[in-house]
Amino acid sequence: xxxxxxxxxxxxxxxxxxxxxxxxxxxxxxxxxxxxxxxxxxxxxxxxxxxxxxxxxxxxxxxxxxxxxxxxxxxxxxxxxxxxxxxxxxxxxxxxxxxxxxxxxxxxxxxxxxxxxxxxxxxxxxxxxxxxxxxxxxxxxxxxxxxxxxxxxxxxxxxxxxxxxxxxxxxxxxxxxxxxxxxxxxxxxxxxxxxxxxxxxxxxxxxxxxxxxxxxxxxxxxxxxxxxxxxx
Length: 232
Ligand code: SAH
Hints:
By secondary structure, the chain is of the alpha/beta class. The protein is 28% helix and 25% strand. It has 7 helices and 9 strands, in the order H-H-H-E-E-H-E-H-E-H-E-E-H-E-E-E. The strands form 2 sheets. The protein has a 7-stranded mixed β-sheet. A two-stranded antiparallel sheet has the order 1-2. The two termini are 25 Å apart. S-adenosyl-L-homocysteine binds at residues 66-69, 97-98, 100-101, 103-104, 118-121, 124, 146-148, 163-164, 221, 223-225.
């Protein structure tokens, strides 16, 4: 680990512990997931200037008008995907749309066999890739593309997690879901900061068709079509 991470790593142990307790109080039950969230340093996924706030249960800016998701939301979406039983067989392949900081990706990578993640802003992919190598995570494949189209090459997926909100569920993502597979996705109109006008859905593909459950009222950045070519 790089030198500048050491100090914060030492001082954040107690705040990390508090965060895990809070997630449990909020209803997260999968102990394998909680353990991985305890052991995955969130401060390396944000700018150094924000590192001291990394273990608060809030979203934080990551540049380009985007945010790292709130830890509770990461836990909730992951549990909605893998279930509450820590002993369940790991999913073979999961697709994430919206790599962002890579934090949700890193949590998934330690719980499933292979993660594919698509991001439309190239500089975010480069930063995320450095973080995965720093953490020794090798089961992640990244692509700079419009995630509304999914990632057809590796479909079908046991699970798909979308970390930005479209106004409607993209057809391609439904098509790329395996039988029995689950799509976790926030859907709704763009919202003002701290508004919660979107609904987190879990859509399961069954032989009879797609089953939809409403999970939570949430607030995500919008899913935007097309790639972004900014260089900063
Ligand atoms: N899971 C990330 C969330 C980042 S915010 C984290 O916790 O850090 C959502 C991300 O989705 C942003 O990085 C944004 O650029 C990306 N995004 C938005 N629309 C997209 C699209 N059509 N395809 C791929 N990524 C998209």
